[in-house]
Structure formats: structure tokens, C-alpha cells
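User: Modeling request: complex.
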Amino acid sequence: ETGVTQTPRHLVMGMTNKKSLKCEQHLGHNAMYWYKQSAKKPLELMFVYNFKEQTENNSVPSRFSPECPNSSHLFLHLHTLQPEDSALYLCASSQGTQPTRNYNEQFFGPGTRLTVL
Amino acid sequence: ILNVEQSPQSLHVQEGDSTNFTCSFPSSNFYALHWYRWETAKSPEALFVMTLNGDEKKKGRISATLNTKEGYSYLYIKGSQPEDSATYLCAWLVYAGNMLTFGGGTRLMVKP
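Assistant: Request completed. Predicted assembly structure:
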């Protein structure tokens, strides 16, 4: 157990649906991240929140909308997705985003496997 | 674009074999190199954080070395066991940056 949970673990949605992914960390961390892993590609950073403020948006399409109501919870709201958005979405947390905070060691959830039909 | 490369992409070994794989990263502005172990259907878990040239870290049968001047790290597994089957990821942290750049991973499969 890494102390980071994600729900749901699997999600199938149509292109017109709206759904949300949820992440929760029980580690007292201040930074949270969304990553995407597509088949045969490295982990791609999508969004970073530090103390509930978004600090990175890695050119992610607006059909992905993150929300961070507090330092322990992170959501990814999905709407009008495309089939190419099918991937594994991983959430992670760290003490902070400064490299001096334990070299930004990140703790990951198990991911949500998303399939867009 | 500054890439992190891992080789090989996948590796099949027999139980008891020792194995090693490579992570290559840009040598400029190096701050830290992370290794993660990722079992199927589980969360990636941190193995090592390496910061100094010549660093060697060990956890049980797994060890890692770091060469920041030439930009590579090796991960070694001695006497592989089926439970070592996983994807091993490395991630590079640039000096004064705050985001990890991940390699594509090496998928290890150990046959009993």
C-alpha cells in the first residue's frame, strides 16, 4: 500500500459521457499529480497541484478538467473524450514540488484504466 | 527535448538468473535519478533515489549504480525470482526543476 487510492479502477465511457476520476492520499503530502500512460509510451505528466494551486498544465486538452479541493483529494473530470484518450491514468503525491523536498519522490496510486468507446 | 531512455524494453529470464538493465538520461543539470518498481495491476513503488555520482544503493537482491558524468544508471537483480517480475521505471529530476521525466520502462519477466 502506497497511501494513495484511486477510484474507479476501471471505467468504460462513451464519447458523449461525463465522468470523474478520484484520487485520495493519506500521506499528508502537499503536491498531487495526474499522469497518463498510453500503450508503449512513457508516463506523461498532465497536471500538478501544489497546496491546492495548479502549477503545471502540460498542454492537456480542455476535455480533461482537474480539480483539487484540498491537499488530500484530486479529481479529473472527463467530458467528450475521444477513443485515443483510452489509457491508464495514474495519480501521485509528494511532500512538495521543490526538488529539495525528498528529491520530489512520488507515491503513486494503482491507476484507473479508462476505455473510451 | 530531453529524453530518458531505458533498455531493453523487455527481458525474459529464468529463475535464478542475474540480470541488469540501463537508464540513460541527459548528464547536464542533473539533480536526482529515481528507480520505481511497478507490478501489474498495482501502484509503482519507489526503489531508490540516487543523487551523487558513483552512488550505489542496495535493497535485498536489487542494487543500482549511478554515473552522472556520462548520464546512466544500472539496475541489477541478483538471482531473479518470479516475484521480481515487474516493470522497472527510472525518472530523472533536473537541477532547479521540479518535475520527474520518466523513461519507458524495462519489463522483466522471470520464469520459474
